[in-house]
């Protein structure tokens, strides 16, 4: 006899575990199926984000930044230190401890909310049944009134650079290096490639990033992208645009293994040799083998499960969220979808505002944005005003020796409603969230300008950019006549 639940969630990543917890909070008998497991065959929760994505990469980003700061920037503060060295295995071990602590934390939340965690690969069958195949090959079928598919995503492989998990790695393997490669190649100058490349560059690797597109960070506001390119060049990240990788060849044995990358750019064909190569060209949804042929759920050409704005599939009672569905593959987007689905099942009218999804690139300095870019507004024919303020004249940024970058605020020319905010600089991810909150309440640039910001803080740059929209920034020269 199969087990019966109100809700079965397939996937224990950010979208899945959040959906499961919220369903349980709303009084539903809930199970969460997760294929990852530990050596005891117990489910490991948290998905890509906690285990091999957001959290471990940020642990390494912070460790590498502290090392770089101690080596290069302490003297600015009058701090004198001796020889600085990095213990890479210790850094990786610290990362692993943080991951373990957080994944165990999710398990604790499941226990507190009475969510049943089930280890195994979940597959949706006809009639809202979920077949679960455990690590030891045993199968069982779960029945549910509602099924939430949240299987997540995986790194994309490319034929010219097959991953061998030794010399050529994907984003997961790049989190496990036990020493600093002298020369490191990265395929892809997107979020993942830049973050991982910057980690190992700060630790001393000579990093070359190959990007097939001619434009750098095309999704980012062009003014901010140009500023970012300048900063990364100063950090000695060699970013080659319009560079298409055609082949790779691994040679040597043991620690002497190398990989030769063949690529083509506007100057012709080239070869470059590296100790390690990271393939970071994006991710794809994990929809393969997730659905039985007669499940009734549609999948598009790119492998995404087809849903509406409320994450409902074509099958009544079957939902999908997170990286498995349309939209940006971001943990916080998946979490909010998980909450929305749970509350929709409970009869609430919750809706995710997809126009205000914050984006962050966790380089140093960070790049973050919310809302529309200037180029998007131009294409849409929207009249707008812009206010900018550089961190180079922000007192708190100068005191911290973190003065690279700027804040850019864009507002509707007629209503003054804030349409977008784009930041490169210290704590950009946290600063842009202030504007995201303001935009959620339809704030104007004037509203932000009339709000009192504490001094001295980094957030004053947001305040000044808002004032600059109207041409009356206080601590910077204005480009337009004051009103």
TrEMBL record:
UniProt xrefs under PROSITE patterns: PYRIDINE_REDOX_1
Cystine pairs annotated here are: 49-54
Write down the required cofactor(s): FAD
Q: Where is the FAD/NAD(P)-binding domain?
A: 5-338
Taxonomy, superkingdom = Bacteria
Tell me the cofactor note.
Binds 1 FAD per subunit.
Membrane-spanning ranges: none
GO cellular-component terms in the record? Answer: cytoplasm
Which residues are responsible for catalysis?
455
Its Enzyme Commission number(s) read 1.8.1.4
Q: Which biological process terms from the Gene Ontology are attached to this UniProt entry? A: 2-oxoglutarate metabolic process
**What Gene Ontology molecular-function terms does this entry list?**
dihydrolipoyl dehydrogenase (NADH) activity; flavin adenine dinucleotide binding
User: Any idea where this protein resides?
Assistant: Cytoplasm
Query: Which Gene3D superfamilies does UniProt cross-reference here?
Result: 3.30.390.30, FAD/NAD(P)-binding domain
> Boundaries of each Pyridine nucleotide-disulphide oxidoreductase dimerisation domain copy?
357-466
Record-listed FAD binding positions: 58, 122, 323, 329-332
Q: How does it assemble?
A: Homodimer.
Q: What else is known?
A: The active site is a redox-active disulfide bond.
Q: Which family does it belong to?
A: Belongs to the class-I pyridine nucleotide-disulfide oxidoreductase family.
Q: What is this protein called?
A: Dihydrolipoyl dehydrogenase
């Amino acid at each position: 006899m199969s087990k019966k639940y109100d809700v079965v969630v397939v996937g224990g990543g950010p979208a899945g575990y959040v959906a499961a917890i919220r369903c349980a909070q709303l009084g539903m008998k809930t199970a969460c199926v997760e294929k990852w497991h530990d050596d005891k065959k117990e489910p490991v929760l948290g998905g890509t984000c906690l285990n091999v994505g957001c959290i471990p990469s940020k642990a390494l980003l912070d460790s590498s930044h502290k090392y770089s700061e101690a080596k290069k920037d302490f003297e600015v503060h009058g701090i004198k230190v001796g020889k600085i060295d990095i213990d890479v295995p210790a850094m990786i071990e610290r990362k692993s401890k943080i991951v373990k602590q957080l994944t165990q934390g999710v398990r604790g939340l499941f226990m507190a909310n009475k969510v049943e965690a089930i280890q195994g690969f979940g597959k949706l069958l006809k009639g809202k049944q979920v077949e679960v195949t455990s690590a030891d090959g045993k199968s069982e079928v779960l029945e549910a009134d509602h099924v939430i598919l949240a299987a997540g995503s995986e790194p994309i492989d490319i034929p010219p650079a097959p991953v061998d998990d030794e010399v050529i790695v994907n984003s997961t393997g790049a989190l496990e290096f036990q020493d600093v490669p002298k020369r490191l190649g990265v395929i892809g100058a997107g979020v993942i490639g830049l973050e991982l490349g910057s980690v190992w560059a700060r630790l001393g690797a000579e990093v070359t990033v190959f990007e097939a597109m001619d434009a750098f960070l095309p999704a980012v506001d062009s003014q901010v992208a140009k500023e970012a390119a300048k900063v990364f060049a100063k950090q000695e990240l060699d970013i080659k645009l319009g560079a298409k990788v055609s082949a790779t060849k691994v040679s040597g044995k043991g620690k002497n293994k190398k990989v030769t990358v063949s690529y083509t750019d506007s100057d012709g064909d080239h070869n470059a040799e590296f100790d390690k190569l990271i393939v970071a060209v994006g991710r794809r949804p994990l929809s393969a083998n997730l659905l039985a042929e007669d499940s009734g759920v549609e999948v598009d050409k790119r492998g995404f499960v087809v849903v509406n704005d409320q994450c409902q599939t074509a099958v009544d009672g079957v939902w999908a969220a997170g990286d498995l569905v349309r939209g940006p593959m971001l943990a916080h987007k998946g979490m909010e979808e998980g909450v929305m689905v749970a509350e929709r099942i409970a009869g609430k009218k919750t809706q995710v505002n997809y126009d205000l999804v914050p984006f962050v690139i966790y380089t140093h300095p960070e790049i973050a944005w919310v809302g529309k870019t200037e180029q998007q507004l131009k294409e849409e024919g929207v009249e707008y005003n812009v206010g900018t303020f550089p961190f180079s004249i922000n007192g708190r940024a100068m005191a911290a020796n973190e003065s690279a970058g700027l804040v850019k605020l864009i507002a509707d020319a007629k209503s003054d409603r804030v349409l977008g905010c784009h930041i490169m600089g210290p704590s950009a991810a946290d600063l842009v969230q202030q504007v995201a909150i303001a935009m959620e309440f339809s704030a104007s640039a004037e509203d932000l300008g009339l709000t009192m910001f504490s001094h001295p803080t980094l957030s004053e740059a947001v305040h000044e950019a808002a004032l600059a929209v109207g041409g009356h920034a206080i601590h910077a020269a204005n480009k337009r006549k004051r009103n």
